[in-house]
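Run: sequence + BJW -> complex structure.
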Amino acid sequence: MTETMTTQGETPRLRIDDDTWVLVLTGAGVSAESGIRTFRDAGGLWEDYPVEQVASPGGFAADPALVWRFYSARRAKAKTCAPNPGHRALAAIEDRLGDRFLLATQNVDGLHGQAGNRRVVEIHGSLFLTRCSGCTRPPFPDDREYPDGPPKCDECAARGRTSLLRPHIVWFGEMLDPEDLLRIGSFLDQARRHRLVFLAVGTSGVVYPAAGMVLEARAAGAETWLVNAEPADNARHFHHFVEGPSGRVLPALFGEALGAVTR
Ligand code: BJW
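>> structure
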């Protein structure tokens, strides 16, 4: 494993040429400058909410009303937030690269889509989708808040059963959608024949399988970059670590690669 090159001052430029493919992984830090709380920072969500009670299947079974209060408050907050320059830089890079770009996000706030990214895999689900905990109806768009208690599934009710609706979020101990992982895997398979760049932004590198994606990318021959406000747990696996806020670093990192696209 090569040594990680750390930059704290002036942001280096990431070279992007006609043979470059870019896989991006984002985490909560990329939305911090939009006013959305991260999880593990000082002042993060896990300071106020016990993670196993609000983000696990067992927590939902024990107290679905608490879980819905947590996600209702997150929906309410996310509705008031807008993309920041970091999101917009990633949207501009997708505009330039087209199918040579893929963004895997752990965020559930929808801000990448709002910024204009289209090739997005929301690996931990979406705040604005709801599904049934008891039947296989597909997740459906839902931005309502449920402060007064957990909503029930009307399709189950029509069949004489009672099931609770739940947020379409991947909780601890739950599998990520295999189709999402397949999409990322096939992108890597195509990209390995080209110049591949893997860029992780605003993530503590603690939660798997996302935290292991850098190693998969390296196995596919990627040059690996981390942009984060502090050293992530898995920082040693990256070739380059640029320390700083993504809203400032990303536009500078892409530099003239963004020149053709103004937003
Ligand atoms: C800035 C910034 C700025 C601030 N600019 N930067 C292998 C080893 C050990 C354990 C496991 C393993 N494989 C699986 C597990 C179990 C588990 C896991 O990883 N546990 C670890 C915690 C130990 N993983 C799972 O259960 C996953 N499922 C799975 O793997 O299924 C198979 C399986 C199950 C069980 C055993 C084995 C296999 C599912 C994970 C689901 C995660 N869900 C959550 C909550 C739901 C989403 C939601 O409500 O929003 O997802 S947890 C929470 O953490 C959320 C996030 O997406 C996720 C990652 O957090 P993130 O984004 O990194 O945020 P932070 O707050 O941690 O970090 C922010 C960073 O930004 C900080 O570093 C700041 O410095 C930085 N920052 N401002 C740039 N302006």
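>> summary
The radius of gyration is 19 Å. The chain has two domains: 1-36+83-124+176-263, 39-80+125-169.
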